[in-house]
């Protein structure tokens, strides 16, 4: 079964997406509005006394329990809407409907934060300018470069604790505040507060704390009262002036002693906005510095404090965390490479932020009336607070135990399956926290160092968590003691140096050699907000130069609508909140509307950067660019690279670089002599850039359906079962694919030989020139004409518009030109280029030009129809042999790969490779499954059922399995009938075949599913995994539709409710469709 789309997806997701885009109430239907519920207000003052002014956090927790995800309060005439159900918050996070709004408290913080990133209004120009200038400072490369400074301050903390001794009582919030303030100052501004060397906190901290407290207090007092409190007002002004003075002093010192360090301060002083070419004013730099000094330490110190509290209260979690640290790091100094390996620590921090979001909410507003939840109207005058503290306790998302601290709920698989926008401690969208990667690296490092070196001891076992709140929340009165661990070897004098671990300084052997042979032009393009992709592009540029390419590098926007088709292109880019980077927006906007086949001839490769915590938008733009270039006719030089900043982004990039350059020059090896290298150049898989393909051996090849079985239209319905011995070291799982590199038939080869007047033993030497590429067939060495046409080109695919236009240039007769012009104007039913040149006698395109526009041979993918539990060294595939009347009206069309495979004899070698798939059985075999397929769509399900039969023989208990199999006739094409019935008797599957040519009203799989709707519905409600495999234009959509109808009938719900419910089950659907 040849596949075109192997992505697992929910069949109902598209319906949900459509619903979410239909107007302000999320539906085309008129909604019945309801008033937003409200606590009982007091006369005149409304709900001003509803919430504890001094400590609103627990008040909001308790208040939220009285309402269902939303309530409003009237505070002195101003309406405040508090939202905290995931479903409603998910709507609010749509930036096309809602935008950031400054809460009253932040409006007062703006007095000293000005138009810094945190307190700027959306329409203030300095926000966008500063954001673009500063984003690179928080990219993965920049954050890694800050690691030595982070390590420096973390070491100071731990050294202090070691010297205090195990009987000293440690004020956790005080210590974490010193730590995070010193870290942001050193990393961002190369400035040392030296907080651990003084008993008293730096005066900046005291001024900051008092200023934040006053900003909070001002929101709770009438404005007239704020104006008459003269003494308070003067003190507040002194605090603001002091914070500004500290910032100004740091700037003054840098200007007096300039440095080439690429830190945040230099970026502000020297950086230019790539869009407006403007820099930041001194005033705005002051505001940004105050912003970073406040926001850069407040939330992280609270996070670390709450984390230590939870570890003290959950010794089993603490033990597991220390075990991970011991396993990953041992007694070594903690290095940057260790950070992504500390998965459980990552879970602990995420779970801590769920229960104790240090920024307990964020503010939103709307420009026009909006209706959320289908019934609650929000006005532009309303101020919306997304209450993270309550959102993170939504039982529909987090379960009945949502108040419990459980890091396992944040495991990578659980975190990635969370509903959208259910965990929001860093805010939302473009106005979310720019410093998230900085804080996360710092928090993991500090937590790992503390757990590596100390046993944590409760100071007061009876301590009950108390919260203090200003701009953020922190524990109040939290103390502990520490005891050096017996296996810790003591503080190290050696410091981890980021340069020792940076991938940029590591080179493969072939990168150290410079090629003197020119390999032609190469273009490297990037889209980069944070600077990481730009850095990677620079590395590729240097690689290319050293390898002999004439390489240029540039931004994606620069080549909008102007991609050179004769130059290989390497693209490195990322998504920013699911959108293109600033310097890629125009390019992506143009690419969105590029017609198919417009970019025929383009060779390209894409590497995408991202962070898997952004589940909904991870790798969205790199994937889009890669797919659109392919759809437009481009050919991949290498598979898209995926770099995950949650892991080792730089290592992943290095691995992709190696694959990429081996695709360009696979024969490069310092261990092989030049003569052997020349021999490798002649290898078909190497030249076509399929280095991963290796020879497999055909063991069996027999008919499942005879080749003379044709339908009423003359289409061959032959199906074959092929067993292949895999290359040594190959591993597969049921549901994976086998890639096969086919060859053209001798019928096609003979047609090419005939047209170009060549004999079977003619030799051709192809020389490199401006029009002939060396990347798709051998150059500068003899190759037989038969070998060339059989192995290197797609000669049976419909001709592309570019090919037709080139043929037109080489055609003399007007009638032949008219034929070509008509074909150019058509969108389908176009003959292959070889058929066209063979039929049009006045088309005299030279062989070199013909080869130049021909498409290199590509691999085909087939679903594996066996299980490794049957035989790990062999696999089987189920192939539908394509022989049908040509759609362009002349003769028959024969599928290249299916006919090649049908012709393979036992012991023949075939170039193959295992391709992994997400189309897999559940990890838990007790989970029930429903399999739905037709024709060769049975292939992966045969593997599934075979695996279940093997598991039964091993004594495993399995969940129920239904197989709906679509066939034409039970006597002719009921594929694998005998063995399926045997496996059914074992209990591995229950069979539900259906036959379309037997005169019954139940013809197709969707009809059979409806006939069996009770058992299907029962399994649906029992959390069954559903698999759909087969033809994608008709069968798959029909199956999706009938599943929706069944769900509606058995639950007696509306279509909209069914869509919503089924969309929430998308992780349980796997769809594998083909043309």
TrEMBL record:
One of its GO terms (molecular function) is NADPH-hemoprotein reductase activity. Residues 1-39, 491-518 are annotated as: Disordered. It comes from Naegleria gruberi (Amoeba). This is Cytochrome p450. Its cofactor is heme; FMN; FAD. It holds the Pfam family FAD_binding_1. Heme binds at residue 433. InterPro entries: Bifunctional_P450_P450_red, CysJ-like_FAD-binding, Cyt_P450, Cyt_P450_CS, Cyt_P450_sf, FAD-bd_FR_type, Flavdoxin-like, Flavodoxin/NO_synth. In the N-terminal section; belongs to the cytochrome P450 family. Residues 522-661 form the Flavodoxin-like domain. GO terms for cellular component: cytosol. Keywords: FAD, Flavoprotein, FMN, Heme, Iron, Metal-binding, Monooxygenase, NADP, Oxidoreductase, Transport. Residues 691-922 form the FAD-binding FR-type domain. It catalyses: 2 oxidized [cytochrome P450] + NADPH = 2 reduced [cytochrome P450] + NADP(+) + H(+). The keyword Flavoprotein applies.
């Amino acid at each position: 079964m040849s596949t075109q789309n192997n992505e697992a997806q929910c069949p109902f997701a598209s319906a949900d997406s459509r619903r979410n885009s239909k107007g302000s109430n999320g539906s085309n239907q008129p909604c019945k509005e309801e008033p937003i519920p409200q606590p009982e207000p007091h006369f005149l003052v409304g709900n001003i006394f509803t919430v504890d002014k001094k400590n609103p956090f627990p008040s909001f927790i308790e208040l939220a329990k009285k309402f269902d995800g939303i309530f409003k309060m009237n505070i002195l005439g101003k309406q405040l809407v508090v939202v905290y159900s995931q479903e409603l918050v998910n709507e609010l996070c749509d930036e096309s409907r809602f935008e950031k709004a400054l809460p009253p408290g932040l409006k007062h913080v703006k007095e000293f934060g000005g138009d810094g990133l945190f307190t700027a209004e959306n329409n203030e120009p300095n926000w966008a300018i500063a954001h673009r200038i500063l984003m690179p400072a928080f990219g993965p490369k920049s954050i890694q470069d800050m690691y030595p400074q982070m390590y420096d301050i973390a070491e100071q903390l731990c050294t202090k604790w070691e010297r205090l001794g195990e009987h000293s009582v440690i004020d956790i919030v005080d210590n974490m505040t010193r730590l995070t303030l010193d870290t942001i100052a050193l990393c961002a501004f190369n400035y040392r507060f030296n907080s651990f060397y003084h008993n008293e906190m730096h005066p900046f901290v005291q001024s900051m704390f008092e200023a934040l407290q006053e900003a909070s207090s001002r929101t709770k007092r009438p404005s007239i009262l704020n104006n008459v409190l003269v003494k308070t007002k003067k003190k507040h002004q002194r605090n603001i002036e002091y914070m500004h003075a500290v910032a100004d002093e740091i700037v003054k010192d840098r200007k007096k002693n300039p440095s080439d360090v690429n830190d945040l301060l230099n970026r502000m002083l020297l950086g230019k906005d790539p869009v407006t070419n403007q820099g930041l004013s001194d005033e705005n730099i002051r505001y940004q510095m105050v912003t970073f000094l406040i926001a850069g330490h407040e939330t992280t110190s609270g996070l670390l404090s709450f984390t230590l509290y939870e570890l003290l209260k959950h010794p089993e979690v603490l033990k597991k965390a220390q075990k991970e640290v011991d396993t990953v790091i041992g007694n070594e100094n903690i290095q940057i490479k260790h950070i992504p390996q500390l998965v459980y620590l990552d879970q602990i921090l995420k779970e801590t932020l769920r229960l104790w979001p240090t920024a307990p909410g964020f503010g939103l507003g709307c420009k026009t009336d909006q209706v959320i939840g289908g019934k609650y109207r929000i006005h532009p005058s309303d101020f919306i607070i997304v209450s993270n503290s309550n959102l993170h306790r939504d039982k529909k998302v987090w379960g009945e135990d949502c108040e419990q601290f459980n890091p396992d709920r944040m495991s990578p698989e659980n975190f990635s399956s969370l509903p959208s926008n259910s965990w929001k401690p860093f805010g939302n969208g473009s106005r979310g926290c720019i410093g998230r990667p900085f804080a996360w690296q710092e928090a993991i490092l500090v937590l790992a160092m503390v757990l590596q070196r100390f046993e944590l001891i409760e100071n007061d076992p009876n301590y009950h968590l108390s919260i203090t709140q200003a701009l953020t929340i922190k524990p109040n009165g939290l103390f502990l003691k520490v005891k050096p661990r017996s296996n810790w070897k003591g503080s190290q004098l050696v410091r981890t140096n980021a340069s020792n671990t940076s991938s940029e300084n590591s080179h493969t052997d072939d990168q150290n050699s410079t090629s003197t042979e020119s390999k032609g032009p190469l273009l490297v393009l990037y889209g980069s907000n944070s600077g990481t992709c730009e850095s990677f592009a620079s590395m590729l540029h240097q690689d290319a130069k050293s390898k002999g390419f004439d390489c240029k590098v540039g931004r994606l926007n620069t080549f909008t609508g102007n991609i050179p088709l004769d130059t290989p292109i390497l693209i490195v880019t990322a998504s920013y909140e699911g959108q293109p980077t600033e310097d890629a927006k125009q390019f992506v906007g143009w690419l969105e509307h590029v017609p198919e086949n417009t970019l025929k001839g383009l060779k390209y490769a894409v590497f995408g950067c991202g962070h898997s915590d952004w589940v909904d938008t991870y790798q969205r733009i790199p994937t889009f660019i890669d797919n659109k270039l392919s759809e437009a006719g481009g050919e991949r030089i290498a598979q898209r690279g995926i770099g995950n900043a949650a892991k080792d982004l730089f290592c992943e990039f290095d691995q992709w670089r190696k694959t990429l350059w081996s695709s360009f020059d696979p024969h490069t090896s310092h261990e092989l002599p030049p003569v052997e290298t020349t021999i490798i150049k002649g290898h078909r898989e190497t030249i076509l850039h399929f280095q991963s393909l290796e020879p497999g051996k055909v063991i069996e090849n027999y008919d499942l359906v005879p080749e003379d079985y044709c339908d009423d239209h003359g289409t061959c319905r032959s199906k074959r079962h092929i067993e292949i011995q895999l290359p040594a070291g190959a591993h597969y799982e049921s549901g994976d694919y086998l890639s096969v590199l086919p060859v053209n038939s001798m019928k096609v080869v003979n047609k090419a030989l005939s047209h170009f007047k060549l004999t079977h033993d003619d030799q051709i030497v192809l020389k490199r020139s401006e029009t002939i590429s060396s990347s798709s067939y051998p150059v500068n060495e003899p190759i037989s004409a038969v070998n060339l046409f059989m192995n290197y080109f797609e000669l049976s695919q419909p001709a592309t518009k570019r090919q037709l236009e080139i043929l037109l240039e080489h055609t003399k007769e007007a009638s032949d030109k008219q034929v070509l012009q008509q074909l150019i104007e058509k969108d389908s039913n176009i003959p292959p280029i070889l058929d066209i040149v063979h039929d049009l006698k006045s088309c005299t395109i030279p062989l070199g030009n013909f080869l130049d526009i021909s498409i290199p041979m590509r691999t085909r993918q087939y679903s594996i129809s066996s299980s490794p539990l049957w035989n790990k060294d062999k696999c089987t595939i189920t192939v539908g042999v394509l022989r049908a009347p040509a759609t362009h009206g002349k003769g028959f069309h024969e599928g290249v790969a299916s006919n090649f495979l049908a012709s393979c004899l036992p012991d023949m070698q075939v170039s193959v490779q295992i391709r992994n798939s997400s189309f897999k059985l559940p990890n838990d075999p007790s989970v029930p499954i429903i399999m739905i397929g037709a024709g060769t769509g049975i292939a992966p399900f045969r593997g599934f059922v075979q695996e279940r039969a093997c598991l039964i023989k091993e004594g495993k208990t399995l969940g129920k399995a239904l197989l709906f199999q679509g066939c034409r006739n039970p006597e002719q094409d009921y594929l694998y009938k005998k063995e399926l019935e045997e496996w059914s008797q074992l209990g591995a599957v229950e069979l539900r075949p259906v036959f379309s040519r037997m005169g019954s009203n139940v013809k197709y799989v969707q009809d059979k599913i409806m006939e069996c709707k009770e058992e299907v519905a029962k399994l649906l409600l029992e959390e069954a995994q559903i698999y759909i495999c087969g033809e994608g234009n008709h069968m798959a959509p029909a199956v999706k539709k009938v599943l929706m109808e069944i769900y509606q009938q058995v639950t007696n719900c509306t279509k909209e409710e069914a869509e919503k419910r089924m969309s929430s089950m998308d992780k349980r659907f796997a769809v594998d469709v083909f043309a």
